[in-house]
Specification:
CATH class of the largest domain: Alpha Beta
Largest sheet: 5 strands, parallel
Order of helices and strands: EHHEHHHEHEHHEHEHHEH
Number of strands: 7
Number of domains: 2
Shape: globular
CATH architecture of the largest domain: 3-Layer(aba) Sandwich
Distance between the termini: 56 Å
Strand order of the largest sheet: 4-5-6-3-7
CATH topology of the largest domain: Rossmann fold
Strand content: 5-15%
Length: 256
């Protein structure tokens, strides 16, 4: 009995479609001049059918990429369209403009050393929203493998299952795009720094993009470790905004 409900009614969840080769169809004689028997015509039709990928395959891939990214359901809804800059401080507007420029230029800079973006400073200014919007666009429109790493929660997860540490760090190393959210939030330990330095260094040496949000500025990162801070600066200097000033003006949430 045929299944009643398909996720994709076009391919009936087979994820491929059989289509007739239109070139052969155009070359066939008119029916009244066709010497082929009905069975021969049927065989020719079948021979000229080709399998093509159904459009639902890309949608399924988007879902897998989003599920594997570890982006939370709340952040999956973040977009450039729902980041309102009307009446906001000019630095908040600058962040949105830089994020849009980064996305526009991403394909051209992706394999270069300066292929990353960072938003520094004021908590609540919209850093995570805009970088999440970038991640969502990379997944939905470019079908890229993105990994979201919220600093505190991410390290709690790594510590909870040390047997899986290497596998999880490998995913961070090799993702098409890695988003480290709230870098160095809280009390930094030597163990945490060792792990995150190894990840950043791997991506630096292999020209793999980073998205960074942090309450620190570049000077503060360099004070923690000059080699680390200078690598972040070098990778992100073309697409970076430091948000500092009055918290009531620069806090995106408080200024609504």
């Amino acid at each position: 009995m045929e299944k009643e409900n398909y996720r994709c009614n076009k391919c009936k969840d087979i994820q491929t479609l059989l289509v007739f080769n239109a070139v052969y169809e155009a070359e066939r004689p008119e029916p009244e001049d066709d010497p082929l028997s009905e069975m021969d015509r049927f065989s020719l039709d079948r021979a000229n059918e080709v399998a093509v990928q159904c459009s639902c395959v890309e949608e399924r891939k988007r879902e897998r990429l989003m599920n594997n990214s570890r982006i939370t359901p709340e952040f999956q809804n973040k977009s450039f369209a729902n980041f309102n800059t009307e009446g906001k401080h000019s630095l908040i507007k600058d962040m949105k403009d830089i994020a849009l420029a980064y996305y526009k230029n991403f394909d051209a800079i992706r394999d270069t050393r300066k292929n990353s973006i960072a938003f520094y400073g004021q908590p609540g200014s919209g850093k995570t929203h805009l970088l999440s919007a970038l991640c969502n666009s990379f997944i939905k429109k470019k079908l890229l493998k993105v990994v979201y790493f919220p600093y505190i929660e991410g390290f709690n997860d790594l510590k909870d299952n040390l047997k899986a540490l290497n596998a999880k760090l490998e995913k961070m190393n090799t993702a098409d795009v890695l988003f480290i959210d709230d870098l160095f939030k809280g009390n930094l330990t030597d163990w945490e720094f060792k792990q995150i330095m190894a990840v950043v260094n791997y991506r630096y040496l292999n020209n793999l993009p980073l998205l960074i949000s942090t309450e620190h500025d570049v000077d503060s990162l360099c004070a923690i470790d000059e080699a680390f801070g200078s690598r972040i600066y070098e990778m992100t200097k073309d697409y970076a905004v430091t948000v500092k000033g009055d918290k009531w003006e620069l806090n995106y949430r408080l200024s609504d």
